[in-house]
Task: structure prediction
Amino acid sequence: APVRSYERRTAPTSESRAAHLHPRALEACEGLGRAARMVSEGHPNRGAEIHGGSGLLAAMRLDDLESRWPFSLALPQSRVETLHREVFVARGGELVTDAEVLPSSTPAAGRLVLRRGGREEVVLAEVIVGCDGGRSVVRDAIGAKLEGRARPQTFVMGDFHDHPPGEVALL
Result:
């Protein structure tokens, strides 16, 4: 059956939304034949340490995980998205960009309403899979609730130049 993916953006993100692929994600990518290429392009992190004024505050090891990929792989999200797009198209998928799914869609009835190029368009499909994130139009349209809970945590994310193996990066 033909498979089509609708993406609101026209290109992979250039923002830092995700910086690492964890072992289970790499195992899933392995099933698509992309894990080895991702690893060759990324930087495996086998652990991390957090230091403060009083010395070592926390340490985490990843190299003892039960996985073929016992590390967290640093690879920019833009590159991960590009590789996923390449796999999708190579396997016969059609990627339609600049296509926003609108709330008037009725996925349970196999009907998507899209905005493309300033015009609305209706698409009919036998199966619709919503992979549109935490504020999912598709999930809202079928009345499905996002399971989970908010966590009162703050994270800082940034893009930094890599340092040679064996050296400590101070941020």
